């Protein structure tokens, strides 16, 4: 709920002031998959999660949330999935690894530690922060979620933006 800051061009001599009601300890987490397949449109699949304080004291995604996201992605994409994950501790959770090993459709690789420049989803977050979330004072968590969804939907329907995040990483897709 703490508003991100961005630069703006105000009239000379008038400093812009954005009033914020107060900091909030509420948290909104987002998990996303950028999906690439040669000869097809790139896709973005995401899930926001609001911390409601009712889930085992956990404020972010659990391994079960990632399991559900992967199952939904598998159903949407209709085929095997090759996951290239960063080294988030939940991505390496034992229960998630067991679930993935029990299925024949996911193949999981991990990025090297401290390599956000190789993760296309980091580029998606950058677009979102610099565009739809900058210079906005969010009044409620619902307002924040609405702006997040609006920005991600905008990115989702413009596959060239998703392709650009892959190009930034220097990784390429080779046809099978």
UniProtKB/TrEMBL annotation:
Residue span, Tc1-like transposase DDE domain: 4-144
UniProt xrefs under InterPro entries: RNaseH_sf, Tc1-like_DDE_dom
Superkingdom in the source lineage: Bacteria
Pfam families: DDE_3
Name of the molecule in the record: Tc1-like transposase DDE domain-containing protein
